[in-house]
Amino acid sequence: MGDVYxxxxxxxxxxxxxxxxxxxxxxPSGDAGRVNLSPKGLDTFRVLDERTVAYLDFVGSGVETxxxxxxxxxxxxxxxxxxxxxNIVRLYGRGEAVEPGDSRFESLASKFPPGPGIRSVIxxxxxxxxDSCGYGVPLxxxxxxxxxxxxxxxxxxxxxxxxxxxxRNAESIDGLPGLRWVSGEx
Length: 186
What we know:
Number of domains: 1
Largest sheet: 8 strands, antiparallel
CATH superfamily: Electron Transport, Fmn-binding Protein, Chain A
Distance between the termini: 46 Å
CATH class: Mainly Beta
Number of helices: 4
Order of helices and strands: EHEEEEHEEHEH
Helix content: 10-25%
């Protein structure tokens, strides 16, 4: 049913790029702490090469993915076919949050459409790619993108978004360090 790949080949890349939604999972080290699973959408995912992917990370109410990546780097990204033939693709690897102020940020962010509230670019070095049948994934009809995130960020303004990040993105729900600039690390 499922296959494992050493790299992201053209077929996997086409499938990944045709999906409107993906999911990101991370977890802190050890037995304590909470596993985090986040849905993502918009035009925010790119295959950079056969072993590297990246996605835009927008301001959110939590900072779990960034905190977990800072602690241990482990991440899995999953794509499901909600339309067309059934398929699931998972990309396992080591991730890093590249925040504004990092010398790589502008170059990475330029690969995506501009948008308000971009807090980092998550870069994943893919160690394992796999696909499986997806027979249990339901069919859904894509209706369009939500506009609430952009509206929220524009309404808050740059200073409001910065203040929100200071209040909500300094540490994870388990107390792990979040955004570097909030904690004065950059």
